[in-house]
Amino acid sequence: MVKNYFDILRAGINTTFQDQGRNNLYHIGIPFSGAMDNRNYLLSNKLVGNKLSKPVLEFAFQGPLLKYHGNKINIAITGDVNFEIKKNNNLILGECYKSFTLENGDELDIISTNKSVYGYLAIGGELELKFQWSSCSVNTKANIGSNNGKKLEDKQKIFVSKINLNHNHRFLNYVNTKIENIRIVKGTNFDYFSAQGKSDFLKNKFKVSKLSDRMGMRLEGKKIENVIDTNIKSEGLVKGVIQVPADGNPIIMLSDHGTIGGYPKIGVVISADYDKLVQLTPGSEIKFKEVDLINAETLFKLYDLETQNLISQI
């Protein structure tokens, strides 16, 4: 029986296995984790004929260099990514949102993301991965998930236990777009901040710091003035919540965030804008715009409907 697997010749920067994450574990300190950009995660799986909930490889900035061994298999990459496929010393320039067939000995070189952070590689088949709490998603801060909760390293192997038999090529005409404003709803501690602090938060631009990862995004800019208390009793946190510590620089909690925190919460990024938020590179500028809860819910429904429409086009 042929063993189908990928040799990792170069692991890339922060390459991990991700799926839709873990539900209902906040009470024991376990966040959702899962793919940072959920839309691109879903589209990658559909392009190779996988169930939408299957694990994929998520990479940041630079992806892995992989050599494939085994029977024909389809792969697809989503995001804004530069990559190449080497077949018998011939280079094929890759295209995102299009499936490709790899054969024994082919190499896939995911060179870099382009003015974005995360990209996704879906492999057409079943990966041999360990699941923890019904998910393979890796949280490197807590060493949770497949691969012993760690990012991939050079010289590892990725085994494929079952290959999808349908090798028809699929594609989607889709371009990732930027967002002018990041929309938020008021946080539970919104009134801890002065009128000037609230105005500065909503009217000024903030720069994405280099101190950003899957756990959180630190921002730099006008200091947000707190007039009540810069520390509170630790409370539950959710993905997208914006905390403001004593230095006045906002921190946005992302997919691997801690589940409790003691900094006042000025706002929460709406779910409809989260995928685009996480793709902002260090040095990018953010401007916040307040919406009410009803509008936030409507915007999410529209974003979800658009995502489902894109999936149906593949």
Task: Give a quick set of tags describing it.
33% strand, 314 residues, 4 helices, 7-stranded mixed barrel, 2 domains, 15% helix, alpha+beta, single chain, Cyclophilin, 7-stranded antiparallel beta sheet
Describe this structure in words.
- Helices cover 15% and strands 33% of the residues.
- It is built from 4 helices and 21 strands.
- The model has no long low-confidence stretch (mean pLDDT 96).
- The radius of gyration is 20 Å and the shape is elongated.
- The chain folds into 2 domains: 4-163, no CATH class; 182-312, Cyclophilin (Beta Barrel), CATH 2.40.100.
- The strands form 4 sheets. A 7-stranded antiparallel beta sheet has the order 7-6-9-4-1-12-11, with no helix packed on it. It has a 7-stranded mixed beta barrel with strand order 13-20-17-18-15-14-21. A 5-stranded antiparallel beta sheet has the order 2-3-10-5-8, with helices on one face.
- The protein starts with a strand and ends with a helix.
- A hairpin with a 2-residue loop joins strand 6 (81-87) and strand 7.
- The longest helix has 20 residues, at 293-312.
- It has helices spanning 38-47, 195-203, 271-278, 293-312; strands at residues 4-10, 16-18, 56-60, 65-69, 73-78, 81-87, 90-93, 99-102, 107-113, 118-123, 125-127, 157-163, 182-186, 205-212, 216-220, 235-236, 241-243, 251-253, 260-261, 265-269, 285-290.
- It has 314 residues and is an alpha+beta fold.
| Shape assignment | elongated
Would you identify the regions where 5 or more consecutive residues have pLDDT less than 50?
none
* Portion of residues within helices: 10-25%
If you compute it from the alpha carbons, what radius of gyration comes out, rounded to the nearest whole angstrom? 20 Å
Average pLDDT reading: 96
Strand portion, in percent? 25-35%
Helical element count? Answer: 4
Alpha-beta content class: alpha+beta
Total separate domains: 2
Strand order of the largest sheet: 7-6-9-4-1-12-11
State the distance separating the first and last CA atoms.
32 Å
Order of helices and strands: EEHEEEEEEEEEEEHEEEEEEEHEH
E-strand count: 21
Largest sheet: 7 strands, antiparallel
